[in-house]
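Hi team, as promised in this morning's meeting, here are the two structures we talked about. I've kept the exact order from the run log so nobody has to guess. The first one is mostly here for context; it's the second one we should focus on when we meet again. Sequence first, then the predicted structure tokens.
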Amino acid sequence: MRQFNEEMISFINASPTPFHAVQWMAQMLECRGFIRLYEDEPWELNDGSDYYVTRNDSSIIAFTYPPCNEKGYTLVGAHTDSPHLRLKPNPLTTSAGVKRLGVEPYGGVLFNPWFDRDLGLAGRVVYLDGEVRKEALIMIDRPIAVIPSLAIHLDREANTSRTVNAQTDIVPMVACGELDFETFILSQIQEDTTGLTLLAHELSFFDTQKGSFAGINEEFITSARLDNLLSCFVGLQALIDASYPMMVACMDHEEVGSDSHVGAGGTFVEETLRRIAGEEFTTLMHRSIMVSCDNAHAQHPNFPSKHESEHAPILNEGLVIKINSNQRYATSARTQGRLIQCARALHVPTQTFVTRSDMGCGSTIGPISATRLGIETIDVGIPTLGMHSIRELSGVNDAYGLYRILMHLGDF
């Protein structure tokens, strides 16, 4: 389990953006013999072979072939994106003698933890090399930016009623004096930028502090982007190691609603399954099960009243099954029963989560995928504290428990 968690942390450290996460997963799959497919080419699938396909280089689907005649696929769904601060198209501004780069919040960012952190920059760049348009991934894995807090002497209410203005208060400062932003970005591609012209970018700030174990007995994992790269890693490892037909779909844009050509609300998963199944698509969906994996809210020890008392997940006490009567989660009694039967056979503990009836409930790709595909689905997740913070926390036992369940669910 220790090695499993160490490899997971290494993956998250190497994946500050969905582009980097998909690149890492694709390299891992190819090392394990998976064959890359391309959406704009015909597919010839051979029994006993394994495949993967990407879209926009930020979503990836991998699968074994063929699916099982009796039980179809065990389909694991997760998402590659996390809340962050995205660079604006024309970001460079000057204020109080320093250069700043304007940002736009992506998803439900918890702003306060971003202050006073060492920030790097990563993402995708589109540029001209002479007359040829090219793309490149960059990762500046050193502190180049910081968002300083306002001193308490200048804001006596900081500890009682502090609010953060997304336009004015969270602009990272990056330099004093002159800064040629375009040249700086292009220099991350190659040292000599002569002949290069920046066309567009999708760049995000990230915390340069690496993930690690924490606690007196190292009972916790603390890292950026546990939501939801943790699930991407677990699903990928289960796919590689399982002995029955599986598919893993790691999708971008979940944190902003999934309604995009690369998100779960788009056509990527459905089109992939239709190319696999042909006229048997509907039959395959009725025989398959989807496990939507997205982190769950652990009970916060300082705020226990924020949870429904009988459905408050605890760190290191097992996988969380998410249930919502209004279908914000797609779990049914049938899918819940199947997963619990598997977990009990493996002696892996499970917990249930229901949101307090006087609080709103978030959602996942589970209901979206279930609606689009017509596939029975269960929503699960690893109990997590500090969700949507720049640094989140989970227990060391729980991800490995999910891995064991995914490894064997197809047998039940």
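And here is the second protein, the one for discussion:
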Amino acid sequence: MNDSVYKPKLLLLLCIATLSTAEQNIATTKQSPIQLNSVVGRIMGGYEANIAQFPYQVSIQQEGAHRCGGAIYSTTIIVSAAHCFELWDMPELFAVRAGSSEHERGGVLSLVRRIFVHPQFNPTNGVSDDIAVLALTHPLSFSVNIQPIPLASSADMTVASHTVFFVSGWGAVTDGSRLRSPRLLFVTLQQFEQRSCETTYANIVHVTEGMLCAGTVRGGRDSCQGDSGGPLVGYSRGQFVLVGVVSFGIGCGRPGIPGIYTRITAYKDWIELVAKQI
């Protein structure tokens, strides 16, 4: 097996077949919620996973504790959410654990050299342009448990939006909990129709084209506090691609209320530009 091109396709494809039905481009009409809670970590209604199934997943640690999730873009570049880094100008406080199913131990712990927050991100609301890029001090060595994931293109999204999405992380497992899961969890979600999502959040925040909405009509499955910055992935043209980054939501897993993810296609050019400048 060539580790550098390893892809955990079979197991995840089986998950698609057994854990989800094709609730594609869901359109729902819900009364607008009253309160927006920023998501700083969580997988609710999830299944335990092995890091070999999600080898692009990393835990971003702040001063030794799990803070957010992230996705491996290259040996030295991690993609995450901007709201995870209020202290973006102090990269020495952060490290990235890759290659482990547990955020507290195992795998490889790499120090962060630089943090790039999108220039239009506004920390006062932490909603729009919620994307960040981390540069590691030393490159990761790819293996079965440590792999990059490509950024979704517009063509990929045309295909992936009609498939099941996967979101993974070590966040809270119940709405409102501060406890983080010690082991990696994942759930399957479907993309919500954009206009429906805009209606749901109408009195809370303006849902832009840079945001992607995903969840389930019945609720019970969602990313949650502690999953922020983590990867939302879809399947397109024979490979898994990064389609979104966990950003925010109202509670966790509430019926008809999707989570909001930063849409990768809207920031693909910026991510690639930053990665080249490091």
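Starting points for discussion:
The chain has two domains: 9-51+149-265, 57-147+268-277.
Residues 61 and 67 are 5 Å apart (CA to CA).
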